[in-house]
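Task 17 of the worksheet. Students: predict the tertiary structure of the chain below and write it out as structure tokens. Keep your answer in the requested format; marks are given for formatting as well as content.
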Amino acid sequence: MLAKSPGHVTDYLDAIARLVPLVVQHRDSFDSERRLPDEVFSALADAGLFRLWLPRALGGPQLSPVDFMSVVEAASMLDGSIGWLVGNGGGISRAGGYLPGPVAREFFSDPHAFVVSATGAVGQAQETEGGYRVTGRWPFGSGAHHASHFMALASAKDANGNDEPPRFYYFRRSDVVIHDTWRVSGLRATGSCDFEVRDLFVPAQHSHDFIGARPTQDGSVYRFPAISAFAWTVGTVPLGIARGAMNAFVQLASRKARQGQSLTMRDREIVQSNYGRADALHRSARAFLISAATELTDVLAEDGPRLIEARAVFRTACTHAAETALRIADILASEAGTGSMLESSPIERYIRDIQAAAKHIAMTPNNYLVSGRVALGLDPGTNRF
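Model answer:
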């Protein structure tokens, strides 16, 4: 449990540090079970790590984007799957800033509340008296096995069959079917399975707009464009995993020599140089992330070219961070040699988790196209940025 009231970033960082022995004890099961053990998930929930963006009015810390990033990075350094779930779960607690107060209090009254989210509009919603009938199957439901609720994006039609803008709909765990689809190489313990509902009635107060949703709570984080907020929950993960890999490499380099050589890895100039390069890459990409998030926060009240540019650069920073993490992974794997492929290697899991995290659509290379168009005086070419 947190030693102080919610909102102190150092408390969350200390809580993550205290989780190290528990994670080491259970890590072997992460791959075989393809989900976090209940004991590990409960410890994360007890530490408040799935409530990072919950409004203060609901008992949450309502962290700033940069403070949120610091906590997610630390969780990712511990383990990629843990960082991914802290980013997703802690980030989607932001839903408390959009749902009606009584509904949000009900959802988050349980300290272990965890809302799984999906942002692909692959569902269909039909307006009906008092709410909507929703049908759909959504992929990549990270943390599905531990969910208390699910949130999914669906295309909507009004009572007359006319198209309406997509909306987010919230389902209780008991109304959802989880499909065991998560068989992957990286981020295995996230349990990111498909989930499905069929002709489910969702009360109107258990839904809200996707674009332009009006917050029910004060705070800049609830004024973030929805797409930007979702990108941040995962875009902060790869560099955290990369720093975890770098820390593990330091330990490895102090005791291991490459085959046929007497010097330990850390005593070789080429290793020193390449580690220095990796560190510079990490620090510069992290600084870009913080700068972009700060700029976007500063212009949220505007509605014009500066906001568009800030949103585009923000997404570019997420993509650049992911690509930088991949570059760092390549550097470390090259220096560690064939040993980096062994499951016994301290960096093997980090490397494959980076490769998986960087594939998320929030970090697509298309973000460079959008920011390039904006910088050249063109329209963004899409509204999903």
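Marker's comment: DSSP finds 13 helices and seven strands in the chain. The first strand starts at residue 115 and ends at 128.
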